[in-house]
Amino acid sequence: MSMPDISASEFATCDFDYLIVGGGTAGLVVASRLTEDPSITVGVIEAGPPGFGDPLIDLPGRFGEAVHTKYDWEFETTVQEGLGDRKLEWARGKVLGGSSAINFFTWMRGNKQDYDSWEQLGNKENLGIQRRSTFDGSNVGVWTGLTSVNSDTKRSYAGNEYYLLNASRENFKVICDSIAREVILEPINGQMTATGVRFECAGSEYVAFVRKEVIVSCGSVQSPLILELSGIGNPDILTAANIEVKIENKNVGENLQDRLMVAMVYEIDPGIPNADDLRANQDLAAAADEEYEEHRTGLRTILPCSFTYLPLSHFMREDEISRLATQVKDSWGAQANSPRNQALLEKLTSKEPLGQMEFVFDARNWYPVFGQEDGKQYGTMLQMLQYPFSTGCLHIPPKPSGKARTTSDDKPIIDPKYYRGDGALDREIMAAGLKFGHKITKTAPLCNFVKRRVFPPLAKDDEDNFFEYAKYHTISDWHPMGTCAMGGSEGSKYGVVDERLKVYGTTNLRCIDASVMPVQISCHPQATVYAIAEKGASMILEDLRMQATDRNF
């Protein structure tokens, strides 16, 4: 098995055409595609370790167990007033392969209207992969989804599919356990140009230089932070962090959109195989491990893969939806006609079949707040709001004036503003979704093996009770996006990157990851992030060919 084995000093002396900050889901895709041309040299700087061969990553039935390990950044939000003054955990992948190495394996596309809305905002091109399948359109309904599991019944992720299979390429260099400090920006011919990346490895600092471009692919949390640490962002935030302002853009780190999730726990028929048994019974866990190794079957292969996506009209009255639309337009005031707000409003009121709420039932207890009883089996109904109006921000923290500047070692300030401001209507929608989710469990076929709801122990199943429950039990679905959004026709007024994913004000710096999505999509985003990376790599190669053509003239 090939592992990244280049030293930091060797990496810093390489002649790179492209440097990629972040060896995650998107970054490794871009690197893999660029290095298909042996004349192109690419270096990737990854903060985490490689995780090849670790059962916490590889085994489908152990999904979620890599959270709170060395593979997780373990971010945390600020205190959220809309959630009863709670802080929420934010798991993000700190490993070669990024969050594709620790996510819950789900692979799906969003609704066609999700991607069309990006173009309507003024981003002229679609994802660029020509449609060859008729399996597209609306995601509304009940269906069995795909999972990112390979033919060996192990996780398929960016680390093993895009790096490991191509690790022998001489032009593809990866360094792990190395923290990027900043992209070095210099004014060349009157324009800001990325000339390299400053990074730290094993306590020593290095600089890797680049000939053509730097690509930031650190994800929705860290891509905007790297831009700010490099001097791109809101002058007030940069000055408070003792960082020189090189490019003013107040949108960096703004437009943070994260999906909301609430769990309800049910006692179910004890005869149903349940992954909770493995946590409670070490002998059973050992037997499950043995069965998996020998036959690739059993509880270690089980994943949630049945999904329901429903429009609001399925569980809310038309007059209720109209009231919410009026409420949010009044809240926006003069901003009601901004392209982004119009896109959000269209998703709320659309007559098209949009999956605005996701429902998943899984035979295990997802909610640690509920203490289960020995000898009983539990299942969880999950409700996930797909198009939240809650919009927040994340930024680097300030430093005392005259002191050292903020660095990537300092914890970011993550404030999603859940259920606050315009997001107040999210809580109303979630309450209606909870009521409907409970109705699903009392309807065949689920009612045939669901005995009773044990959490929350509400006296009545009305929306007032669910409304209160949502405040104190909503958690993150860990799908943040939008913090380096494409600006579309409004340019840097509303965005951070243009339609070619180049950072406004620079000649050769791009962001390629989930942070560039301008508005949320109705699906788990893994497949879309891969598509963005594939499209981003194609754009880089197109621009490279165009430059070569221009030189020939």
Automatic annotation (TrEMBL):
<keyword id="KW-0560">Oxidoreductase</keyword>
<keyword id="KW-0285">Flavoprotein</keyword>
<feature type="binding site">
    <location>
        <position position="95"/>
    </location>
    <ligand>
        <name>FAD</name>
    </ligand>
</feature>
<feature type="binding site">
    <location>
        <begin position="478"/>
        <end position="479"/>
    </location>
    <ligand>
        <name>FAD</name>
    </ligand>
</feature>
<feature type="active site" description="Proton acceptor">
    <location>
        <position position="524"/>
    </location>
</feature>
<feature type="domain" description="Glucose-methanol-choline oxidoreductase N-terminal">
    <location>
        <begin position="219"/>
        <end position="233"/>
    </location>
</feature>
<comment type="similarity">
    <text>Belongs to the GMC oxidoreductase family.</text>
</comment>
<dbReference type="InterPro" id="IPR000172">
    <property type="entry name" value="GMC_OxRdtase_N"/>
</dbReference>
<feature type="binding site">
    <location>
        <begin position="525"/>
        <end position="526"/>
    </location>
    <ligand>
        <name>FAD</name>
    </ligand>
</feature>
<feature type="domain" description="Glucose-methanol-choline oxidoreductase N-terminal">
    <location>
        <begin position="93"/>
        <end position="116"/>
    </location>
</feature>
<dbReference type="Pfam" id="PF00732">
    <property type="entry name" value="GMC_oxred_N"/>
</dbReference>
<keyword id="KW-0274">FAD</keyword>
<protein>
    <recommendedName>
        <fullName>Glucose-methanol-choline oxidoreductase N-terminal domain-containing protein</fullName>
    </recommendedName>
</protein>
<dbReference type="GO" id="GO:0016614">
    <property type="term" value="F:oxidoreductase activity, acting on CH-OH group of donors"/>
</dbReference>
<dbReference type="InterPro" id="IPR012132">
    <property type="entry name" value="GMC_OxRdtase"/>
</dbReference>
<dbReference type="InterPro" id="IPR036188">
    <property type="entry name" value="FAD/NAD-bd_sf"/>
</dbReference>
<dbReference type="Pfam" id="PF05199">
    <property type="entry name" value="GMC_oxred_C"/>
</dbReference>
<dbReference type="InterPro" id="IPR007867">
    <property type="entry name" value="GMC_OxRtase_C"/>
</dbReference>
<feature type="active site" description="Proton donor">
    <location>
        <position position="479"/>
    </location>
</feature>
<dbReference type="GO" id="GO:0050660">
    <property type="term" value="F:flavin adenine dinucleotide binding"/>
</dbReference>
